[in-house]
Design brief:
The chain is mainly alpha-helical and about 230 residues long. Helices cover about 75% and strands about 0% of the residues. It has one domain: DnaJ domain (Helix Hairpins), CATH 1.10.287.110. It has 9 helices and no strands.
């Protein structure tokens, strides 16, 4: 697993997938794929957009540059500074969880020092990851649906000279779903990395006075019952 996968980084915007070429593709194949896809992704075309066209241009620029391609293949990042950005995103995620937990604790008058924060954060992250899996399945079903719908739209013009607008719209929606899946997977990987960090910690709980008295009472009760 390359570094970007562990940090939730740029790997999920896979440059090879953007162009629709294998990782072994040579310069000629990359250029041909770019020419073919850029025509469909151009903002002036039905189903095209500035975002799709820009993504194709960036992918082509990186993969045609020998040094940049080697760096991307090794790390999953386009630029070196993105490695720190990936770490920063994970730390920001954990900071947000701790911050929200502290705010809620203050509102409810809960003493977090007496709670197992590692366990609480772990449970939260695990629930989020489960949610991502459910959402992923739903998006994948939409991708299949748009694919099947696209091939069913035909132009009423028997000559076939008209633009198949509805098919192009379905293909555009399918591409949007693919982008949504990539972002979701990136977020999931970021949560996975955060979970690994949290599991590498322990939390030393503070036994409050009330809890201490409760434990002593339980011990006394058990002793009394045992004596009887």
């Amino acid at each position: 697993m390359v570094l970007a996968e562990r940090l939730g980084g740029r790997l999920m915007t896979d440059l090879y997938s953007v162009l629709g070429v294998p990782r072994s593709a040579d310069v000629g194949a990359i250029r041909a794929a770019y020419r073919r896809r850029s025509k469909l992704a151009h903002p002036d075309c039905v189903g095209g957009s500035v975002a799709r066209f820009t993504a194709l241009k960036e992918a082509c620029d990186v993969l045609l540059d020998k040094e940049r391609r080697a760096f991307y293949d090794a790390t999953g990042f386009v630029k070196a500074e993105e490695i720190n950005q990936g770490r920063g995103a994970v730390f920001q995620l954990l900071g947000g969880i701790l911050g929200a937990t502290a705010v809620e604790a203050v509102k409810r008058g809960i003493d977090l020092r007496a709670k197992n924060l590692v366990e609480l954060i772990t449970t939260h992250l695990e629930k989020q990851i489960t949610t991502f899996s459910t959402t992923k399945l739903e998006i994948e079903k939409r991708v299949v649906l748009y694919t099947e719908l696209a091939v069913r739209f035909e132009c009423a013009d028997a000559s076939g000279g008209g633009d198949n607008v509805l098919r192009a719209i379905c293909e555009g929606q399918r591409a949007a779903c693919a982008t949504e899946l990539a972002l979701l997977e990136k977020t999931r990987l970021m949560h996975d990395e955060a979970l690994k960090i949290v599991r590498g910690h322990r939390f030393r709980r503070e036994v409050t006075m009330a809890a201490d008295r409760f434990q002593k009472w339980n011990a006394l009760t058990s002793l009394f019952q045992g004596g009887v």
